[in-house]
Design goal:
ten-stranded antiparallel beta sheet; 277 residues; alpha+beta; Thiol Ester Dehydrase, Chain A
Length: 277
């Protein structure tokens, strides 16, 4: 029997209630590299009110991750791409009603590619966010299904220096802190489990790298104006380790920026686009 269960396509989860306070918002900000210098994101009494990083929406979204099948080998189910769409600033505290769905499963030959949408709204029906996940189930393709659309290739302009280049140090304890947001995969903390997965040591959560990037864009490109970041999509190109330095490079264009994130080993986030208001 195939490991890929096509019957999960289109099935929505039951609504999940995610309740949070300013402490969860601050924990997320610290988990993606904020410090005491970033008072707007870590201090509940800051003048003007605590701000919420737009990528915080992945935290409630993960609570409604849909069922993808009973026979999935999670060691081969890899997070490939992530997109967020946030029409307005997220509240500092409250309750989200979150629903997830597998929207498509494509056969790419060497892998089955799962497209997942998880959306949230307030209890009074105000639409708050959409998150889109692309997961590659390695070795589960080749069953003759729809190959799906070709991925759009988005590269930085050749021979052009970035308009912004922002470096952030990932602490050695970053993964231990970020996992408290709800992603408890032992791959990011347990050395033995990481070795079983083919890594020399635990790797950083991809969504932590993603959040580092959003924080860099909000702080350095948008001058802290969270309401201006409307969407961000990126492909996870290679692993990041605690202790690495992430350099976010931004090439401005009309309405947004092409993004590339690098470590000293190469590109970590590619095919990335941020849209601004």
């Amino acid at each position: 029997m195939s490991e890929v269960d096509l019957s999960v396509i289109g099935k929505k989860t039951e609504p999940v209630i995610f309740e949070y306070t300013w402490k969860d918002v601050v924990l997320y900000a610290l988990g993606v590299g904020a410090s005491a210098e970033d008072l707007d994101f870590v201090y509940e009494r800051v003048p003007g009110g605590l701000k919420v990083l737009p990528s915080f929406c992945v935290v409630p979204a993960m609570r409604a991750y849909p069922h993808v099948g009973d026979k999935v080998d999670w060691s081969r189910f890899l997070h490939g791409e992530q997109t967020i769409r946030v029409p307005a600033p997220l509240p500092t505290e409250g309750r989200f009603v979150v629903v997830g769905e597998v929207t498509d499963i494509y056969d790419k030959g060497k892998a089955a590619v799962y497209h997942i949408k998880i959306s949230g709204q307030t209890e009074d029906g105000h639409h708050s966010f959409d998150t889109y996940w692309v997961n590659f189930y390695v070795g589960a393709g080749g069953v003759g299904g729809d190959p799906g659309p070709k991925s759009e290739i988005l590269s930085p302009p050749e021979d052009t220096e970035p308009d912004y280049s922002i470096s952030s140090k990932v602490t050695e304890n970053q993964a231990a802190l970020y996992r408290l947001n709800g992603d408890l995969n032992p791959l990011h903390l347990d050395p033995e489990f990481a070795r079983q997965g083919g890594f020399d040591k635990p790797i950083l959560h991809g969504l932590c790298t993603y959040g580092f990037t959003v924080r860099a864009i909000v702080n350095d490109v948008l001058n802290g104006e969270v309401e201006r970041l409307k969407s961000f999509r990126a492909r996870f190109a290679s692993v990041v380790y605690p202790g690495d330095t992430l350099t976010t490079r931004c090439w401005m264009q009309n309405g947004g920026a092409i993004i590339q994130v690098e470590t000293d080993r190469g590109v970590a986030l590619s095919n990335a686009l941020c849209e601004f208001a």
